Amino acid sequence: MDELQRVSDLRVSSVQPLIRPSELLEAMPVNAQVYEHVIRVRQAIHQILTGVDQRPLVIVGPCSIHDPDAAMAYAQRLKPVAESLSDRMMIVMRVYFEKPRTTIGWKGLINDPEMNGSFDMARGLRLARQLLLDINQLGLATASEILEPFTPQYIGDLLAWVAIGARTTESQTHRQMASGLSTPVGFKNSTDGNTRVAIDAMLSAANPHTFLGINESGETSIVATTGNRDTHLILRGGSQGENYDESEVVSVASALQEAGLTPRLMVDCSHANSRKNHRRQVVVWSDLIKQIVQAREKGAGQSMILGAMLESHLNAGRQDIPEDLSDLQYGVSVTDACIDWQTTEQLLREAYEQL
Description:
Blueprint: H1 2-5, H2 21-27, H3 32-50, E1 57-61, H4 68-84, E2 90-94, H5 121-138, E3 142-145, H6 152-155, E4 161-164, H7 172-180, E5 185-188, H8 196-205, E6 210-214, E7 220-224, E8 231-235, H9 246-258, E9 265-268, H10 281-297, E10 305-311, H11 341-354
Parallel strand pairs: 1-2, 1-10, 2-3, 3-4, 4-5, 5-8, 8-9, 9-10
Antiparallel strand pairs: 6-7
């Protein structure tokens, strides 16, 4: 062992045991009614992906969750709206706990729930699971991005939809993980705007894989998957600009069809498509709804656009994390800037009338 220490873990300062997934699930159980709700929404999203259900899928909510109370207040506002518009659109709340960083920065509620570098991940996992439980018990479906491949063992049973982000779509680890997820999965194009990597990810995830992972007991295991065909591509723009206009949508849909995949896709109204200006999400959203309506008016049947993503919070904009957390503004994002609730509700209701 002394010899091993000379060559191993030279840059590791500490290793701490974490609660096993099975222990967390046992401590925070889910009743049959909630699971029926999750299954029902996953099946509805499957129908949208295949074009059987013509309703657009809308993933809407905060860029990231840092305050579960504010997130719950948002969910309580979204639930009646989602219910009242459900005959023309499927609305799922964006509940993101993990944030990929270009260099460094706060990595999300699971990684550092206190936002002070204490990295109490056991508490972060509990907070995340409790929020997902509470939102699902409202009757509202939840969506999240998965960054760490072990996270689904802790919270995956409560998610109706999962995203693989622009920085991880090309990752073999995430493609393998997606092949075994029980949810539909959206792959974003890469940060430079390359859509081929997302198509390759969909093809990869559709196939069986065998890889190293953990089981519910937290034991390192050989995981074998059957493949996941409930996947789709998400256009989020890139370093070369936006990619949500009709010509781009048609081009990418054709590439999907050539690859033997369903020629339907989602558009992220934020990120490069909004030029990183949260107010421009309104412009992108309006264009997408127009494209969907025009496709129907032309008698084209289903639109190539299956849905959209909006980054939205109780209040508009963003804020840096202050040294004194009591100075945090309530309901304002600490990552990407968001549109406010009033704008969000207006966009959803106007789209409902147009649809």
